[in-house]
Amino acid sequence: MEMDEFFTSHTTKAEPQIALTGANERPKRVVMVIEGEMIGDNRGDEAAAEHGKELMLHALSSLASAKAVPDEIILLHDGVNLLFPESECFKCWKPILDREIAVKVCNETLFYLGRVVEDPRMICEDMAVLLQSILTADRVIRL
Known about the structure:
Elements: E1 30-34, H1 46-62, E2 72-75, H2 93-98, E3 102-106, H3 107-113, E4 123-125, H4 127-135, E5 139-142
Parallel strand pairs: 1-2, 1-5, 2-3, 3-4
């Protein structure tokens, strides 16, 4: 048996798939996972922490008018703090939700913080459900 005749009696032509989509297409389902209040690692540097928070604010603000947006945004751990009024990013969520981007929040983190989300359009789910959403996504973007 030849190497290319595994399951058939004739030669099988293998065509490698290099990308999820063609040049002008986007992936089927994109999930953005936010685990913290800033982008990057502050390395114990206050200036870097402020810059990371500023980058997060700009990233979330840009989703209001961006051409390509994720299908879901999942907030875990410290990222859940971005949903509350004391966060500079609080004002970013209404335009994101108005664009019908699903925003999912970890129930266990909300319970740990003793908080509830203010906008009923935000979906509160257990970590097990969020993990399934991440594992079945075509592409995951982590901020």
